[in-house]
Design goal:
Blueprint (H helix, E strand, L loop, with lengths): L8 H12 L6 H12 L4 H4 L4 H17 L6 E5 L3 H4 L6 E8 L4 H11 L4 E13 L5 E6 L8 E8 L7 H37 L9
Antiparallel strand pairs: 1-2, 2-5, 3-4, 3-5
Helix pairs in contact: 1-2, 1-4, 2-4, 6-7
């Protein structure tokens, strides 16, 4: 039974019809992507955005997904124009494709906050993708739990930034993600060592204490 709080399937199909008209290849893959991409979107959020803008937003994010090769995040910071990206926003837009890891969204939001940049809207989904031998997308579907084998797609709209500041903002966010990976890697190692010590202690008799 569909969630009545989420965007209707009929509207997603309308968005897909607009979006797929922009592409010559991968129409079927793109259509499947659109349905996965917008399935969790709340009606209330989508109400203020036109179908044309939703189509363009998804198209731009799909382009990043196709370019992602697993080596580093695909991260774009832009002031979208309808004639170039097929969607418009009065805000600066950040779109990210990266393997899913703990604290990714929190890191992005905290980094923006530390720069004094207001965040107006954030949309995040986790997907699982399959590719053929040439790296072309063959299957896309929503993932229902976090895992590094999945991909996290983040769309974030922030206070408008001057065009000359966008490259520096992109570099800062990529650096923060690198720092996050270092911290998370250390955290996993510390947790593993803690569990090892815990298991060793569980196998040893406790010393008797006399009062």
């Amino acid at each position: 039974m569909p969630n009545s709080l989420n965007i209707a399937e009929e509207r997603i199909s309308q968005i897909s019809d607009i979006a797929t008209s922009y592409v010559q290849k991968d129409k079927s893959s793109f259509d499947r992507f659109i349905h996965s991409y917008y399935q969790p979107l709340y009606q209330e959020t989508a109400k203020a955005i036109s179908n044309a803008d939703l189509a363009g937003m998804a198209l731009h994010h799909f382009t990043l997904l196709k370019a992602y090769d697993g080596s580093k995040p695909q991260l774009s910071v832009l002031n979208p124009k309808a004639e170039e990206q097929h969607f418009h926003s009065s805000h600066t837009v950040i779109q990210i494709v990266a393997y899913d890891r703990p604290f990714l969204v929190d890191t992005i939001l905290m980094s923006l906050e530390s720069e004094g940049i207001d965040v107006h809207r954030t949309y995040n989904i986790i997907i699982n993708v399959e590719r053929d031998a040439e790296g072309n997308l063959t299957h896309i579907h929503n993932a229902h739990e976090s895992a590094t084998s999945h991909l996290s797609m983040i769309h974030c709209e922030i206070a408008y930034q001057d065009s000359e500041d966008l490259a520096a903002l992109q570099k800062m966010l990529l650096n923060k993600i690198d720092t996050l990976d270092t911290v998370v890697g250390d955290w996993k190692q510390m947790r593993a060592q803690l569990m090892e010590v815990k298991n060793e202690l569980a196998c040893k008799p406790l010393p008797e204490v006399f009062f």
